[in-house]
Design brief:
Layout: H1 2-12, H2 19-24, H3 29-34, H4 44-65, H5 71-81, H6 84-93, H7 104-108, H8 115-132, H9 135-147, H10 150-156, H11 163-175, E1 180-187, E2 194-201, E3 204-211, H12 214-228
Antiparallel strand pairs: 1-2, 2-3
Length: 231
């Protein structure tokens, strides 16, 4: 156990006291289907806690470093920096995929590079650092491996504004109405859901998006609408 994670700990500059907690970060639920005798659960509980810790870290960081922003800006920036793609990218940079424990099926299905799995693993690691060390250590980890350079770039180039916000502003300013989002299809097992969502204005379909969550599918639909529709 110690040798397996020593390179990762050096990269993070964090030495874990609870080795099982660190291992737990990498246990995908599919792995337990083939290892029912495992004493450890999947990383889902850690991921849930990590999501909340990450939200607080982001709020504190923005509050301390960007005092001139408005509340609405904070919300948009938070959504942009903690979205699945950003977390998966950060996860891959520190090569968390090398430590994942997956079922044979997930291995064959490219689970080791799956953005959802990678993002969940990153949030689970945040929770593990928080529990094993402190909020301050978790804060430093997130700033170093997720925020560094990226947050300033997002702000300077106004890239934090979501497609959904842009579409709503565009339609609202011109027509004084807002677009409507509808779930067109929902399929797949609980741990691998897929949502197909359409965005409409005056009963006309503007765009369609497919993603693992409703929020991401709505964003994809809005992005498609902005690319394809001339207002």
């Amino acid at each position: 156990m110690d040798n397996k994670y020593s390179n990762l700990e050096k990269k993070l500059n964090i030495q874990f006291k609870d080795r099982d907690l660190l291992k737990n970060v990498f246990i995908h639920r599919s792995y337990l289907n083939e290892h029912k005798s495992s004493k450890l659960s999947s990383n889902e509980r850690l991921e849930f806690l990590g999501d909340s810790v990450l939200s607080l870290i982001t709020s504190v960081y923005l509050f301390k470093n960007y005092p001139d922003l408005e509340e609405g800006d904070y919300t948009e920036i938070k959504s942009a920096i903690v979205k699945m793609e950003s977390l998966a990218e950060a996860s891959k940079k520190i090569e968390l995929n090398n430590y994942l424990l997956l079922s044979k099926g997930e291995e064959r299905g490219s689970g080791r590079t799956n953005s959802n799995i990678m993002a969940d693993c990153f949030e689970a690691l945040i929770a593990a650092i928080f529990l094993d060390k402190s909020f301050e250590v978790a804060y430093t980890f997130v700033v170093s491996f997720l925020f560094k350079d990226k947050l300033d770039y997002l702000l300077k180039n106004n890239l934090y504004l979501s497609s959904k916000s842009k579409l709503q502003e565009m339609i609202q300013s011109k027509y004084k109405k807002t677009p409507v989002y509808k779930v067109l299809e929902e399929k797949g097992p609980e741990h691998k859901r897929s949502f197909k969502i359409g965005v409409y204005f005056n009963s006309k379909e503007l765009g369609v998006g497919v993603a693992p969550s409703k929020k991401e599918a709505e964003e994809a639909a809005a992005k498609g609408a902005l690319e394809n529709v001339v207002f």
